[in-house]
Amino acid sequence: MKTNDALLCHLVANYTTLQKLHPKYQVDELLYSPKKIKVGVNEVVFIHYIEIKSGDFNLQITTPTRAVRLTPDNTTDHKSNTIIQAIGNIHFSSKSPVNFYVQVLRIQY
Length: 109
Fold this sequence. Notes:
With 109 residues, the protein is mainly beta. It is built from 1 helix and 9 strands, in the order H-E-E-E-E-E-E-E-E-E.
């Protein structure tokens, strides 16, 4: 499974146009098992790929506006390319230890 780059580009372009902003800094990061991703002032973060290395998992991703729960039932081979946009801190929680990595596009305005 790959990231959905075309959709991600469309969402970023749409967000920038609607907000009438011009990006000053963009970086694509790969984070290993974060508990929290800090989102700063004048910044937006797009999670665009998650791969989970644990067999049985129940990972919850919480942003200020939404919560997404990933389980073996709603992922493909323990991978998800659901795009999540956040303008506030992102928290990851699970009842049992989960090894995973997250690919994040961070844009500062």
